[in-house]
Design goal:
Layout (H helix, E strand, L loop, with lengths): L5 H18 L4 H13 L3 H24 L4 H8 L3 H8 L8 H10 L4
Helix pairs in contact: 4-5, 4-6
Length: 112
């Protein structure tokens, strides 16, 4: 897979979301309202699920980095992301990791 810019990444994600939204007959306004309500009304179970997801991502990244014999600095350089992002992710200090940087990590790991 080739490297793409953050703008290209966001455009691709936006196109996919638009297709899904339109296929389900949901207007952009309805989706926006639903997202705002969801963000402010998360149940403790939903919050726990989000934490488990982030913890799993942190664990996978850390394990893959170690399996490939990379330091956080080497992974960051290969992935074109800030080393602070890698360190914060592995330490689970970022509960909402940047999706574009996660995409860049996959490329840094050689995953297409």
């Amino acid at each position: 897979m080739k490297w793409i810019t953050r703008r290209e990444f966001n455009q691709g994600i936006g196109a996919v979301l638009k297709t899904i939204r339109e296929a389900r007959g949901i207007s952009q306004e309805e989706l926006g309202e639903a997202l705002r309500q969801n963000a402010s009304n998360k149940t403790p179970e939903q919050q726990d699920e989000q934490l488990r997801t982030v913890a799993a991502i942190c664990t996978v990244v850390s394990n893959m980095r170690k399996e490939q014999g990379l330091t956080p600095e080497q992974l960051a350089k290969r992935s074109h992301v800030p080393v602070k992002f890698v360190r914060n992710l592995e330490a689970a200090n970022d509960l909402n990791p940047d999706a574009y940087f996660l995409f860049c990590l996959t490329l840094g790991f050689g995953i297409s």
